[in-house]
Amino acid sequence: MVRMSEPITAPVLQISDLKKCVPGGRTLFENLNLGLSPGEIVVIMGESGAGKSTLLNLVAGLDQADFGAITVEGRDLLTLSDDGRTALRRDRIGFVFQAFHILPHLTLAQNIALPLVLGRHPGKTALDRANGLLAAVGLPGRGEDYAAQLSGGELQRIAIARALIHQPALILADEPTGNLDPETAERVLDLFRSAVRTSGAATLMVTHSERAAAIADRVFILTHNGLVERHAG
Amino acid sequence: MPADLPLRPVLLRWMVGGEWRAHPGRVIVAALAIAIGVALGYAVHLVNRSALDEFARAVQSVSGEADLQVHATQAAGFDEALYPKLARLPGIAHASPVVEVQATLPDRSQITLLGLDVFRAAQVTPGLIGRPAGNPGQGLRDMALGEDAIYLSQSALLASKTPFGQPLTLSTAKGHYAARLAGTLPGLGPNRRVAVMDIATAQWRFGTPGRLQRIDLALRPGVSLARLEDDIRKVLPPDAELVTPKSEARRSDSLSRAYRVNLEMLAMVALLTGGFLVYSAQSLSVARRRSQFALLRVLGLSQRGLLTQILLEGFAVGVIGALGGLLLGLGLATAALQLLGGDLGGGFFAGSRPELSFDPLATGVFLGLGLAVAMAGSLWPALEAGKVQPAVALKTSGDTVDPRHRPSLVWPMILLGAGGLAALAPPILDLPLFGYGAMALTLAGGIGAMPWLARTLLSPLNRLNNLLPAPYLAIRRLWGAPGQAAVALCGIVASTSLMVAMAIMVSSFRGSVDDWLVQLLPSDVYLRVAGAETGGLDPTAQARLAALPGLARIQFRRSLTLRLSHDQPPITLIATPIDRQNPGRSLTLVRQARAPTGSQVPVWVSEPMSRLYHVKSGDTFVLPLGGKTHRVFVAGVWRDYSRPFGAVAMDAVAYTRMTGDTGRSEAAIDLKPGVAAAGVLPVLRAALPADLADRTDLALPKDLRRMALTIFDRSFAMTYALEAIAILVGMAGVAATFSAQTLARTREFGMLRHIGVTRGQVLAMLALEGGLLGAVGSLAGLALGAVMGQILIQVINPQSFNWTMDTRWPFTLFGLLVAALITAAAGTAVLAGRSALSGDAIRSVREDW
Fold first, then answer.
1. Which of A97, A152, B273, B338 is the most exposed place for a label (fewest CB within 10 A)?
2. Nearest Cβ partner of B394 from A90, A101, A179?
3. What is the mean pLDDT of residues A220-227?
4. Residue B741 class from Cβ within 10 Å (0-12 exposed, 13-18 middle, 19+ buried)?
5. Which fold has domain A40-46+79-230?
6. CA-based nearest distance A106→chain B, Å
């Protein structure tokens, strides 16, 4: 069992006694507890099939736990309706995926601006902010380009910009460098770390990559019986 | 923080705009399908509306502006003693007696001849008063004083080719009369063929002394219409009836309503097929973008927002398609009125040249229909997309095919069951609305059952293991993803089944008409005097004809029109020799009753008569004939395809006894063995009375049969055209769907190329997939078409046109159709496959874009 580190400020994400079973009844994990403070980067590692992505889905409100509680900024996901969880994702959570998921028929600026547009911001404001973020992720002036014109590393930069544009409290990242070569991965991770530090958002990342784990404040191993913290050295 | 957000317009613009930029061809095909459906329906409606308005104006012009009319129930008219009785009724301001006769001009064109008392008519129907040529102020005086003066409407004037002041010979059943062309009828529109002359001359020369066909009535202001109508009915003899503007409008409408509604429903078939095309396009588009929608859901788009997004995409396609369709329909209707006039094949408005009547309500209805069909086509894909778990869709890149999933038959069975129940329901307002509903439900149920059918039909093939790679892959894919196969098939099944249904109905109808004609025309020669509802061949003329050499037997008959209901078109009464013991020798009986008891006169009613007037074998009803009413006994029902508004046949002897009318208008002639018909025709014509010879048609049965079938084919020409367009829309849908599905599988083909499948094998696999889909679609289309054909034959035709027919199966057409569909489907799949395989196999298996 992990000893919970005492957060200094109110946690952005609090997971308590979480249990998840797979169809058929087998327990994937249980007794899972975790708290994330603002600006903190936490990495979850573990074997394939341990439930890392499932944990992210639960935190995002895309899947339902069998037991336990998950609160994001004090709001209990289990008590929220599907619409409520949707609104929470839209306004307070950012996502970075392994497969980037950049929509091919939208321009890069439109892709980045999607969370703002979904949150009722005016289109012009959203695009202005997206173009500003493009410069921040090292792709200035590419707002009118399409995904087909970019490399994998550049696409993931777009995804990071999209995750940050609406200033979320929590960023969920699922193998963000899994599709990238080591050098590109390194550069993307540097960008990712500096961007989330600047934004002050808490980050929960699942990965197999030790390089990715290196940017974390804390690293946990997901086991059948919850999270085990891995200490440096 | 609001729990849910409606879809942002800017997001809709981005998503729809992006998708349309990426795949404009698919959007154009879907919008075009809607546009064609809307255009056909709208154009047919506008042409019918214009023709009907023209027809109503024509009726109005002959009727003048009378508030009420009393009509004779048959051409012989009623006793003019009714006129003073009506004129004396307290609510009547003026009454105008009218003699109305159908006459022919020297060029044999028909004209309505009205005989008026001009001073009375000036009070009731001033639009019918003539204007003398060159002396506009003398109309009343000239008409009143000049007994031989005749006035023609503009159209009749052109047809007569006679200068003013010159004699114009008119022919009626009573003979010829040369009147003096005195002027025109400026109160009538340019297309009406009407002549007006003094009532006394008309009665003397063309009518029967002492009898009128009509009395036009002008009412006193403020009179109670209901009470006055009651008062009028009390004084009416059996051979006259009261006609109100409303009942006349109903009668005009019922004349062609079933034909018009059926034509519009057929046009709707094209729209329905377009709806399935939208469904195909949207289903594919949604399936391809499943991971995109999942991303939007993860980023915060609600389920309702996603549903709205997809529905609005369909709505946008609908707006483009429907607006384009309305413009196209307007153009088509204008062109059709210019080129074909107001008649679309039914013959109800033949010869009319109506102007386009714009109908704002119909415009709104067809716009709404286009939008509704497009939205309905998007609804199912939208609901399916909303049900997908975003996390799953993101992981599987949108490919959610699960071969373990067994297609359900619950909803298809419910729809088919509802269709069966709807087929049993009676007509509404004399229209088979439930019948059309049964067709739509059966079609929807059949298409819903396609995944189950595809899997069931392919299961035996799927169990084969020793197959070559191409068929192995093709069969496994179709068996494993029957839902995707169904999406590709829905357009093909919809259009095929509708075509098969129509083909069965038309071939059954044509075959039954042909059989009926053979039974109807057993004699060697047929004779008919045109426009001889009264008069015609008198007993002397009949005896002279019967005595001609070479004739084995000649049977004379009288045909006349009879009004039985004030809001139905007139029926036809046929008086002909009928053997009471064996009426089937003279009539094509479909039902027969026992012999009547007592002194009741037996009659045999046609199928339309039986259905329209709700009389069946064994019933009795009242027949107004010869100025009296007679209760007659329905001894049987016979098949008749030539008189859609009903006919009553009775024995000629009984008819003469009831009416005193010994004249006849038609004859069927059997020749002695060895006598050639061609040699008898001149002899017959020479024996005709001189005044009837030029109005008498002599025809051989083979010519009559050929002419009848030509008319049949012409009346179905528009039906064939509409069906062909529906099929083309369906085939375009199949091509679009197959190519979209094939192009979406580029990655799969790349993978197959990587593991050693040759390009040829992939193309063979696609050809086989296309062929199998075409075969499954054809079989389903044939089965569904057979069911829908029976609905057309057993429900829609009897309820629309009041006649039945025997089913015939056009097997040759079925074979050709199946071969064409399989070839087209396989060919389209291979063509699309070539395009999909043209790229780099390595690029196509890249994980991302």
1. B338
2. A101
3. 92
4. buried
5. Rossmann fold (3.40.50)
6. 6
Q: Which residue of B has its CA nearest to A99?
A: B848
Residue type, A59: V
Name the residue among A88, A106, A122 with its Cβ closest to that of B14. Answer: A106
Compute the distance between CA of residue A49 and CA of residue B566 in angstroms, rounded to an integer.
Answer: 83
At A22, list the tokens. Answer: 């797979």
Of the candidates A88, A99, A120, the beta carbon closest to that of B848 is on A99
| Interface with chain A: mutation pick from B1, B4, B7, B10, highest number of A CBs within 10 Å | B10
Comparing CB atoms, the residue among B299, B391, B394 nearest residue A90 is B299
Q: How far is B709 from chain A (nearest CA, A)?
A: 57
CB B96 within 8 A of CB B215: yes
Subunit contact A105:B303, Cβ cutoff 8 A: no
- Per the structure block, which two tokens stand in for A184? 């590109």
Question: For tokens 């399935």, what's the residue?
Answer: B276
Separation of alpha carbons A129 and A10, rounded Å: 29
Which one, of B527, B536, B528, lies nearest residue B172 by Cα?
Answer: B536
Show me where the domains of chain A are located.
Answer: 40-46+79-230
Q: Which of B163, B145, B154, B158 is nearest to B194 (CA)?
A: B154
pLDDT of residue A7: 44
Q: How far apart are alpha carbons B252 and B554 in whole angstroms?
A: 37
Q: What is the CA radius of gyration of chain B?
A: 33
Tens digits of residue pLDDT in B54-65? 666 666 555 556
As a whole number of angstroms, the distance between CA B534 and CA B377 comes to: 59
Which residues, in sequence order, are bridge partners of residue A34? A15
- The answer, for A183 touching chain B at a CB cutoff of 8 Å, is no
This complex has an ipTM of 0.74
- CA-CA distance, B135 to B245, in Å (whole number)? 34
Taking Cα atoms as reference points, which of A167, A129, A134 lies closest to residue A150? A134
What is the DSSP code string of B89-122? STTEEEEEEEEEEEEE-TTS-EEEEEEE-HHHHH
Of B10, B299, B391, the CB nearest to A63: B391
Helix, strand or coil, per DSSP, at residue A171:
strand
Class of residue B528 by CB neighbours under 10 A (exposed 0-12, middle 13-18, buried 19+): middle
Query: Which single residue is written with the structure tokens 């079933």?
Result: B258
Identify from B298, B309, B313, B746 which residue to disrupt to test chain A contact, counting A C-beta atoms within 10 A and taking the largest count. B298
Residue B62 CB-half CA count within 13 A: 22
Chain B residues within 8 angstroms (CB to CB) of chain A:
1-5, 8, 10-11, 14-15, 18-19, 21-22, 291-292, 295-304, 389-391, 394-395, 397, 847-849
Q: Which two tokens stand for residue A227?
A: 């999270």
Q: pLDDT tens for residues A170-219?
A: 999 998 888 778 888 888 889 889 888 888 999 999 999 898 899 999 99
**How does DSSP classify residue B456?**
H
Rounded-to-5 percentages of helix, strand, coil across chain B: 60, 15, 25
